[in-house]
Specification:
Layout: E1 2-8, E2 13-19, E3 24-32, E4 40-45, E5 50-54, H1 60-72, E6 87-92, E7 103-104, H2 107-115, H3 124-137, E8 143-147, H4 157-160, H5 166-172, H6 181-195, E9 203-209, E10 213-219, E11 222-226, H7 247-257, H8 261-270, H9 273-278, H10 284-292, H11 296-320, E12 325-329, H12 330-335, H13 337-344, H14 356-359, E13 374-377, H15 382-395
This protein binds adenosine-5'-diphosphate (ADP).
The site of adenosine-5'-diphosphate has 13 residues, from helix 10 and helix 12.
Length: 401
């Protein structure tokens, strides 16, 4: 099947055109600055052919028309006719409590997504716009929604409830949902393959470390706990987000600095995390190079970042009653030996031993031969999961991810 995978943001559309038989992206790209001046589409074909197209891309529907035009283009395209697009798979951030797995998009589904906008006010509206745009531009082509929250939907109340009045859960759906589910699911499955054991016999901790960061306790294939919560703000320290915080701090700061709600929101989401502590950058590469040049606050930011991950590994091993593997993924997890080393440093007591040479290589298994808990770096591939889920939903046949 050939699936157009879309990740629609407020002013961007990331896309990959997948062949699910060969499991390769035939083309991928980004439409950026939608609705702004200087909107541009960057398109890369499987053979490396690359093109930038500048245009007046006023909304998501026009953005998708641009994507179609370049997929069909004689010189840069990969298809000859629209009908070669069998389906469209959308990354949808928030499925709420309704969507516990991927679904075929119908008018009813769109209605529920609209009802859930309050849960993800920044992310779900552009996802819905993307779905509506495809309905207009590619009428009749089936669309599937794959939710970031779905993989965590089997958490138990003891993991997803906060210590606030239960009525708030019932009336406002205030609970832990978790995000990055597609990535946690993919890398946990890959780790099981590397270990040569069925996923349903393994206890795996997955750490998705990108600009946003989250961890999951994957107990025999099910995410039983995860570090992001009601929103992606909770848990690990991130590029610009604070992660776990004593909630009184927010009230205290709002009072002291006279901050409005929106300003407090910006403070915690945009000016905290690595950039907040270091005062320099939200980018881990820059934090590490600054730390190595002797900048103290960059070093503190790095230490807080890694220490918190180590604590979560301990917590999740305890929650699962053991751990077979720790998996690093995302831009930082896949590429930073320094972060992996700092995280694993005190975990030797669990039987986790990082091989320094492998840690500095591009290998996937980074553990010493005698380690009883393996450490992996596994490049994530959320688009592949979305393409395969789309095929599963449409054909009704299970495939091994
Ligand atoms: P997103 O969450 O936006 O998809 P990515 O998964 O691409 O982001 O991760 C971006 C983060 O990965 C940035 O903090 C970047 O500095 C970090 N990163 C990328 N390469 C390296 C590297 N070689 N060493 C350390 N950090 C890296």
């Amino acid at each position: 099947m050939r699936v157009l995978v879309l990740n629609c943001g407020s002013s961007s559309i990331k896309y990959q055109f997948y062949d699910t038989v060969q499991r390769v992206a035939l083309a991928k790209g980004l439409v950026d600055r939608i609705g702004m001046s200087g909107a541009v589409l960057t398109h890369i074909r499987y053979d490396g052919d690359k093109i930038n197209i500048v245009g007046e891309i006023l909304d998501h529907a026009i953005g998708i028309e641009y994507v179609l035009a370049v997929l069909l283009s004689k010189n840069h395209g990969v298809i000859e006719d629209k009908s070669e697009i069998d389906a469209v798979g959308h990354r949808v951030v928030h499925g709420g409590e309704t969507f516990t797995g991927s679904v075929l998009i119908t008018q009813e589904v769109i209605k529920v997504l609209q009802d859930n906008v309050g849960l993800a006010p920044l992310h779900n509206p552009p996802n819905i716009k993307g779905i509506q745009a495809v309905t207009r531009v590619l009428p009749g082509v089936p669309q599937v929604g794959v939710f970031d929250t779905a993989y965590h939907a089997k958490m138990e109340p003891k993991a997803y409830l906060y210590g606030i009045p239960y009525e708030l859960y019932k009336s406002h759906q205030i609970r832990r949902y978790g995000f990055h589910g597609t990535s946690h699911r993919f890398v946990a499955g890959r780790a099981a393959k590397k270990l040569g054991k069925p996923l349903n016999e393994l206890k795996i901790v997955t750490a998705h470390l990108g600009n946003g960061c989250s961890m999951a306790a994957v107990d025999r294939g099910t995410s039983i706990d995860t570090s992001m919560g009601f929103t992606p703000l909770e848990g690990l320290l991130m590029g610009t987000r604070c992660g776990d915080i004593d909630t009184s701090i927010i009230l205290h700061i709002m009072g002291k600095e006279g901050l409005q709600l929106s300003e407090a929101n910006t403070l915690l989401n945009k000016h905290s995390g690595l950039i907040g502590i270091s005062g320099e950058s939200s980018d881990m590469r820059e934090i590490i190079s600054s730390m190595k040049e002797g900048h103290k606050r960059a070093k503190i930011a790095f230490d807080v970042f890694c220490y918190r991950i180590t604590k979560y590994v301990g917590a999740y091993a305890a929650a699962m009653g053991g751990i077979d593997a720790l998996v690093f993924t995302g831009g930082i997890g896949e590429n930073s030996p320094d972060v992996r080393e700092a995280v694993c440093k005190s975990l030797g007591f669990m039987g986790m031993k990082l091989d320094p040479e492998k840690n500095n290589s591009k290998e996937e298994d980074l553990s010493t031969e005698d380690a009883t808990v393996k450490v992996f770096r596994i490049p994530t591939n959320e688009e592949l999961v979305i393409a395969l889920d789309t095929e599963v939903i449409i054909n009704g046949i299970e495939v091994d991810i």
